[in-house]
């Protein structure tokens, strides 16, 4: 008699964790992000108006009365001769009417050529505001040092926004928070979906999902709080994801760059790393005036290759990178995304003027265009005044979502404690 063989069973299919797991994950992600998102939301609601608020809080620095044609190159030369040992590597070439020219200075070690942050001869300021025509000084400040008073209020809020004003450590902390936020966006979206219904006749998915989009304004306080958290997150979800992932690009490029590179993006910063020099080239063969002329020439040539013209309106600037022996010239074309312009760039050797790289903000590389749009949306550089107002409201909404999430957690925690006491 043949022995009876054990019944064969199908291998158990792997499945995602149950909904309860994602509820707990979302809860703890929200609690860990509450401080970061609360501060980022509040400060971010002000940053779309940073230029106006800077002029309001420090008008003696940012506003200037002048007639004639600004000459930033000549003003820079005056500053360099006035402050021996100082370097000005970034120079705006356009100045708005009624505004001062702001130059950021740093001081070099005469032996190594490297920047010095402290020590003999290093003053307690790094921002210098000047009349763009005459070069007359209007004031100074150390950017972001709130102990110098209200003139640094907006720079300090900016530092809070991206690093909690904690420098490199804070930037890394915010980068990790942005990464968690990005993942939690998808978790939160999943939790708004209705639970799986039984196999008996059931309503369509969209009909069961509809309550997640509603706010019961006349409901009890807890229900209203819950609806604001769930429906608010749903209505704003696309922009929340944009701001979360763009925050990763700003604060954690070691994660963002490889991901986008896998999608075909090209990191323009690699030009600087690939051309790194053993020692900084602080005195290149091309001075700033010659480099500006060379940059404008290359801009016209490279823009023409893409069927674009160099536009007179919009920003122009030039940046010297001594560590790489490179000048970067920013100008404005039809490919620019932000309303200020200046996003189209050419990089060239600071001795020979040989072209090293070209960056078009849009229309050439799809992944790069995506990144530039993320940046422009995050900084409210597109769609004019209505979008700036929307970003301010969005910042407050992010803070609201953090607060309502904490209220939900406290309520559930109190309920669990009450059940434990009754048991």
From TrEMBL:
Residue ranges crossing the lipid bilayer per the database entry: 20-42, 160-193, 234-252, 389-410
Keyword annotations from UniProtKB, A to Z: Membrane, Transmembrane, Transmembrane helix
InterPro entries associated with the record: PepSY-ass_TM
Highest taxon in the source lineage: Bacteria
Keyword Protease: no
Protein name: Putative iron-regulated membrane protein
Gene source species: Novosphingobium hassiacum
Species classification: Bacteria, Pseudomonadati, Pseudomonadota, Alphaproteobacteria, Sphingomonadales
């Amino acid at each position: 008699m043949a022995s009876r063989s054990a019944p064969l069973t199908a291998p158990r299919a792997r499945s995602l964790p149950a909904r309860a797991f994602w509820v707990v994950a979302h809860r703890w992600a929200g609690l860990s992000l509450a401080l970061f998102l609360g501060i980022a939301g509040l400060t971010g609601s002000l940053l779309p108006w940073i230029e106006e608020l800077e002029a309001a809080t420090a008008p003696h620095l940012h506003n200037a009365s002048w007639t004639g044609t600004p000459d930033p190159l000549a003003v820079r030369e005056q500053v360099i001769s006035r402050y021996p040992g100082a370097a000005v590597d970034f120079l705006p070439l356009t100045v708005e009417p009624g505004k001062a020219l702001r130059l950021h200075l740093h001081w070099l070690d005469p032996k190594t050529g490297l920047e010095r942050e402290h020590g003999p001869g290093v003053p307690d300021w790094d921002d210098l505001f000047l009349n763009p025509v005459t070069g007359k000084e209007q004031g100074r400040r150390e950017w972001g040092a709130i102990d110098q008073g209200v003139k640094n209020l907006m720079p300090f809020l900016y530092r809070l926004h991206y690093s909690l004003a904690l420098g490199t450590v804070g930037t890394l902390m915010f980068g990790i928070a942005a990464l968690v936020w990005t993942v939690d966006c998808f978790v939160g979206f999943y939790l708004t979906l209705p639970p799986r219904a039984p196999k008996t006749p059931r309503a369509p998915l969209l009909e069961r999902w509809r309550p997640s989009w509603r706010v019961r304004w006349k409901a009890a306080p807890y229900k209203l709080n819950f609806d604001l958290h769930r429906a608010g997150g749903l209505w704003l979800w696309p922009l929340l994801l944009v701001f979360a992932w763009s925050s990763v690009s700003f604060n954690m490029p070691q994660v963002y760059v490889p991901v986008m590179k896998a999608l075909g993006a090209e990191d323009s910063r690699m030009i600087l790393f690939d051309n790194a020099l053993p020692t900084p080239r602080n005195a290149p063969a091309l001075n700033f005036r010659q480099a500006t002329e060379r940059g404008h020439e290359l801009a016209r040539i490279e823009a023409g290759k893409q069927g674009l013209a160099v536009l007179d309106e919009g920003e122009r600037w030039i940046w010297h990178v001594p560590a790489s022996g490179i000048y970067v010239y920013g100008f404005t074309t039809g490919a620019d995304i932000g309303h200020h312009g200046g996003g189209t760039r050419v990089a060239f050797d600071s001795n020979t003027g040989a072209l090293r790289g070209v960056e078009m903000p849009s229309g050439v590389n799809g992944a790069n265009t995506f990144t530039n749009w993320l940046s422009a949306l995050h900084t409210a550089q597109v769609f004019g005044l209505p979008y700036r107002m929307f970003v301010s409201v969005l910042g407050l909404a992010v803070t609201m979502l953090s607060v309502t999430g904490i209220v939900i957690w406290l309520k559930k925690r109190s309920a669990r404690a009450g059940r434990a006491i009754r048991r």
